[in-house]
Amino acid sequence: MLLRALFKRPSRHAGADIGAIYILPHIDQAHVRRYNAAFGFAGDAVPLPFLYLLAQRAQLATMLDRPTLFKIPGLIHVENTLSMHGPIDPARPLAISTEVRMQPPAANGAIHCLLETRAFDGERLAFACSSNYLVKRGRKTEGKSPAGEAPSGQPLGRWTLAMDAGRRYAALSGDWNPIHLWPWSARLMGMRAPIIHGAHSMAKACALLQQASGRTVETVWCRFRTPVALGEELVLIAGSAEGEFAALCKDHVAMEGRAGFA
Q1: How far apart are CA 102 and CA 242, in angstroms?
Q2: Closest CA to 148 of 229, 250, 79, 69
Q3: Between the CA of residue 117 and those of 97, 120, 241, what are the distances in Å?
Q4: I need a surface site. Which of 24, 72, 125, 139 has the fewest CB within 10 A?
Q5: With the C-alpha atoms ordered 32, 262, 119, 201, is the resulting torsion angle positive or negative?
Q6: Rounded to an integer, what distance in angstroms lies between the CA atom of residue 48 and that of residue 67?
Q7: How many Å from the N-terminal Cα to the C-terminal Cα in the chain?
Q8: How far apart are CA 174 and CA 152, in angstroms?
Q9: Per-domain residue ranges for the chain?
Q10: What is the pLDDT of residues 130-177, one digit of tens each?
Q11: Which CATH architecture has domain 2-139+147-261?
């Protein structure tokens, strides 16, 4: 998939909206166990953020199988909503439907695409995922955008990103976007340094929330406010309302979100 994405060219004749449906015969239970061990999820159950891996694979396959208006490498994940509708049975097949919709240009010229994915276990909606990606950066404005005020809630945990964290997560998730891998590959995509996947931060937050609450996270919304370079430390802070959280990097809000529990 990485090689196909690297060599696929944008099409001038592509439609603004594309879609496809894929069948996943089963979920690899060994893959789930590796994922749980990597992030600290207890047991063998399929955790909510693991489902993003399935959604993203369908999203990438859709963009590879259909003409697109943009290059796939270098897309930046800026926001994500994920919901699980009951426990996931790894042995049952899933029909995964994905639609890619181009969004109107923002006031500064930035262009985003919205990837909507739904997975069905027979007639039942098993999970849904909505991912917002930055396709084209907008014009720079004077001054710096506010990174958000740091919340003053209870710290739920902290973690330091190893310099190979992007490559290790890529091997686990299948997301080999060059912006996450090496300094040279990140620079080719216009980044000063390799950054961690937004979904990695989301998964770590969900694991820490489950550990702190003793309950299963069934829904999560995340906004990735600022990129986090490999080698940095993050601290997860509880917000003022139940389920609210923020991940801080150098005292700035790198990610904010809300979680719902079973």
Answers
A1: 33
A2: 250
A3: 6, 10, 28
A4: 139
A5: negative
A6: 30
A7: 35
A8: 35
A9: 2-139+147-261
A10: 999 998 888 876 555 555 566 678 999 999 999 999 999 999 999 998
A11: Roll (3.10)
- The DSSP result for the chain, as a single string, is -HHHHHHPPP-TT--SEEEEEEEE----HHHHHHHHHHHT--SSS--TTHHHHHHHHHHHHHHHHS--SS-STT-EEEEEEEEE-S---TTS-EEEEEEEEEPPPPTTS-EEEEEEEEEEETTEEEEEEEEEEEEE-----SS-----PPP-S-EEEEEE--TTHHHHHHHHH----GGGT-HHHHHHTT-SS-B--HHHHHHHHHHHHHHHHSS-EEEEEEEE-S--BTT-EEEEEE-SSTTEEEEEETTEEEEEEEEEE-
pTM as predicted:
0.91
CB atoms within 10 A of CB 221: 17
Each residue's pLDDT tens digit, 189-241: 888 999 999 999 999 999 999 999 999 999 999 999 999 999 999 999 999 89
**Cβ count near 138 (within 10 Å):** 14
